[in-house]
Design brief:
Largest sheet: none
Structural class: mainly alpha
Distance between the termini: 51 Å
Number of helices: 7
Number of strands: 0
Radius of gyration: 21 Å
Shape: elongated
Length: about 150
């Protein structure tokens, strides 16, 4: 191959790499755009999340913030802030709907489990087990099907 053929091959490869990266970035931007679209009630998912956090802000003490930071440690740093906001929004929503006067460990754990995608429940279970939190009261919220199938296959 001559120098020109190598250069053209490099340009074609680089084109596909850039196209792939733009598609991946566009996918995540589109997901964020969909979450910003208003629903039938006039507020988007992110608007409600922000509303619940602002309403429950007085309930959040230093202990609860520290626990939230510990719970999102397994999340890659790039996505940690988004995960923290989503989990805090769900915890705040539960607290507001139950008219809680303080954020208890029970509310924090339920919000954490509900806000975490089912595919990540094995990491969630591992983190809660490390913190020595009894999962028995939350079994109905956990998706252990994938984990139990994995155990049965071994």
């Amino acid at each position: 191959m001559s120098g020109w053929d190598w250069f053209m091959s490099f340009i074609i490869l680089w084109t596909f790499i850039l196209l792939g990266l733009m598609l991946i970035g566009g996918y995540f931007m589109f997901r964020k755009f969909l979450k910003r679209l208003p629903k039938a009630d006039g507020k988007s998912i992110l608007d409600w999340q922000e509303h619940y956090i602002n309403q429950a802000l007085p309930l959040w003490g230093e202990d609860q913030r520290t626990l939230l930071n510990e719970l999102v440690e397994p999340v890659p740093e790039l996505f940690r802030d988004v995960a923290k906001e989503k989990i805090a929004g769900k915890i705040s929503e539960i607290a507001i709907k139950e008219n809680a006067t303080t954020l208890t460990l029970d509310i924090m754990i339920r919000g954490y489990i509900i806000a975490t995608p089912k595919r990540d429940h094995k990491f969630l279970i591992k983190k809660l087990t490390e913190k020595e939190i009894d999962l028995a009261p939350y079994e109905h919220l956990l998706d252990r099907n994938a984990e139990s199938r994995k155990m049965n296959a071994q």
